[in-house]
Amino acid sequence: VPPAQVRIVEVGPRDGLQNIPDKISTSTKIELIRRLHETGLTAIELTSVVSPRAVPQLSDCRDLLGHSFVQDLLSSPRQQSPEAGLMRWPVLVPNVKGLEIAVQNGVREVAVFISATEGFSRANIKCSVEEGIARAREVTRLATKAGLAVRGYVSCIFEDPYNGPTPHHAVLHCVKSLLDAGCHEVSLGDTLGVGSPANVHSLLEYLTGHDIPITRLAGHFHDTYGQAVANVWEAYRYGVRVFDSSVAGLGGCPYAPGAKGNVATEDVVYMFQNAGISTGVDLTKLAETGEWVANELGQINSSRVGRALLCKT
Ligand code: HMG
Ligand code: MG
């Protein structure tokens, strides 16, 4: 991505919805993806293919992926957007079973995920960090062989809900393992949303000081302590050009109790636009989509920018 551009990976349909207890219909999820697509977003994480017991909300992933609108997205020629490169529709998978279901449905990019810490790893994917790495490596190998692109996530980059603060070297080990396995980029997940810009700076300094190219890193900041927009900016200043965010600031993980949603896409787009940095996203349409989905789900619209633009502040 050229210097004056950033790529936003909208994770609303996956991270944004996975922790909402009330059942959301598949058609509402499809409508969300459709509206997000219309804003000009070029990367949208569609859903996850995980154990239905682990995340009941996304247990309709086969129906969603098989829907004609999603099939059209997945089967469209790999469009190059002048703004942000390849159009991407990743799907989160924890294991080979998830990969197989994704492939059967025409998915061309998957995201694998591990934790830098033992506690969250055991809670979220029922295995140790090393077992998680081995699983992610195998999924990445098979996916790559099948011609898919693979994105990686490392969770708990700053803190684990059970183990406390995360040492930088644990994050480095995970990032290195995912890149060596063949992930095209690794998204750094502040799962609990506790980090602040000084923590972002210090971790990026450590990772790049240990030969991790900044161009292979993305930022995934939850906003529990209200630091997420500042964290995105700090990472941008350090050279990161890919950021995950959720429309209306939706998001959370069933295995990270108390953690709030992702940084709101509206807030990220507003911040970059004001700095003359292109995201390719229509902010008005995005704000309307945020308000629509918040109403539809009975959730608070957590985007300050969205609420301000729609005069709801
Ligand atoms: P396990 O219980 O050890 O797995 O869970 P298992 O292989 O024994 O399977 C248990 C059951 O799940 C079986 O069904 C499997 O068939 C089924 P049963 O025979 O009992 O009826 N199953 C699956 N079904 C559909 N798709 C699959 C799949 N795999 C197994 N892929 C496992 C281990 C990893 C499967 C489970 O713990 C799991 O699915 N975990 C995922 C939890 C999750 O999705 N968490 C949220 C996403 S991560 C996140 O939010 C963080 C992130 O945003 C970054 C950040 O913020 O830090 C990415
Ligand atoms: Mg997350």
Automatic annotation (TrEMBL):
Pathway: Metabolic intermediate metabolism; (S)-3-hydroxy-3-methylglutaryl-CoA degradation; acetoacetate from (S)-3-hydroxy-3-methylglutaryl-CoA: step 1/1
Metal-binding in keyword set: yes
Reaction catalysis annotation: (3S)-3-hydroxy-3-methylglutaryl-CoA = acetoacetate + acetyl-CoA
Enzyme class: lyase
Domain of life per record: Eukaryota
Ranges where the Pyruvate carboxyltransferase domain occurs: 6-287
Protein name as catalogued: hydroxymethylglutaryl-CoA lyase
Lineage summary: Eukaryota, Fungi, Dikarya, Ascomycota, Pezizomycotina
GO molecular function: hydroxymethylglutaryl-CoA lyase activity; metal ion binding
Keyword terms, alphabetized: Lyase, Metal-binding
Family recorded in the similarity comment: Belongs to the HMG-CoA lyase family.
Gene Ontology BP, a term: ketone body biosynthetic process
Enzyme Commission designation: 4.1.3.4
